[in-house]
TrEMBL record:
It comes from the Bacteria. Residues 46-147 form the BD-FAE-like domain. This is Alpha/beta hydrolase fold domain-containing protein. GO terms for molecular function: hydrolase activity. Keywords: Hydrolase. The keyword Hydrolase applies. InterPro entries: AB_hydrolase_fold, BD-FAE-like_dom, GDXG_lipolytic_enzyme.
């Protein structure tokens, strides 16, 4: 165990040194949809921040919050300079479109990344999807319900991981409101990540604020999702609760997002090396 820890400390030290030496570029307002609809052209854009001098980098696709009715795409400053790329996704809002249409926007954005990231030096086998609040809900739906990405010939199971910061695990409240269902009436149907729980091959990190301060049972939803994933046989699910923080838990969560990305990247490197040695034998 001592050598195992030492190895990871060595890898992280190399990543930190490399991050200090890298140059980064940001491209804003990339259209990821070919639709000619004016609302799609306005909303379905992404910002792309990546290390120019690194090859085979990890990419985090980030979905913003706002209840699926508002918000702006943005790359959090705390996610910059970490030797990985960040893609911030804009999407359409309810009630102009249905919640399922918004999820499909997210799938199309992920498809753009998978088809284009290698042109900038990225690796399609090292893509993580995540987000905050409504954005975390989108990430969970897209990862757990494989059909959304399959439409674009993308296999959700090739993801490196999923990070959810205070996302809903039950049917999103905006979807429930469209059906005239009150906020305090929990529903788990096809529009809920919990409905699609399965033993995914990629790790999942769930984070929420304090259960006594969060929105409408947000911690308990995530705790139930974590439990059901484990009962399905999932071996790598983390559930973190930021005590003392309400729904605005993103500030303390972002450093852990960065650390988790580096851990997953290092673990994948280790696994790849082990497979390569095994093949040689």
């Amino acid at each position: 165990m001592r050598y195992f820890v030492a190895f990871f400390l060595f890898v992280f030290s190399l990543l930190d040194v490399q991050a200090q030496e890298l140059r980064y570029k940001e491209i804003q307002g990339i259209a990821y949809s070919s639709s000619k609809d004016s609302y799609v052209q306005k909303q379905c854009l992404l910002d792309f921040y990546y290390p120019e001098d690194k090859k085979d980098f990890t990419t985090l696709i980030w979905f913003h919050g706002g209840g699926l009715t508002s918000g702006n795409r943005a790359i959090p400053e705390r996610l910059k300079g970490g030797d990985f790329a960040v893609v911030s996704v804009g999407y359409r809002f309810a009630p102009q479109v249905r919640v399922e249409d918004i999820i499909k926007d997210g799938a199309e954005a992920i498809s753009w990344v998978m088809k284009n990231i290698a042109n900038y030096g990225g690796n399609t086998q090292k893509v993580v999807i995540g987000g905050y609040s409504a954005g975390a809900y989108l990430a969970l739906m897209l990862a757990l319900r494989k059909e959304y990405l399959a439409v674009h010939s993308v296999d959700a199971d090739q993801l490196l991981g999923v990070i959810s910061c205070s996302g809903q695990a039950i049917t999103h409240f905006t979807e429930r409101q469209s059906r005239h269902i009150r906020d305090t009436q929990p529903i788990v149907d096809e529009m809920a990540p919990l409905y699609w729980v399965r033993n995914t091959p990629f790790p999942i990190m769930l984070m929420t604020g304090d259960r006594e301060l969060e929105m409408l049972g947000r911690y308990e939803e995530n705790a139930y999702l974590a439990r059901m994933l484990k009962l399905c046989g999932h071996k790598d699910v983390k559930l973190l609760e930021f005590q003392g923080y309400d729904h605005g838990m993103l500030t303390p969560a972002l450093p852990l997002v960065v650390r988790q990305l580096k851990e997953w990247e290092a673990l994948r490197l280790t696994n790849s090396n082990q497979k390569s040695e095994s093949t040689k034998k």
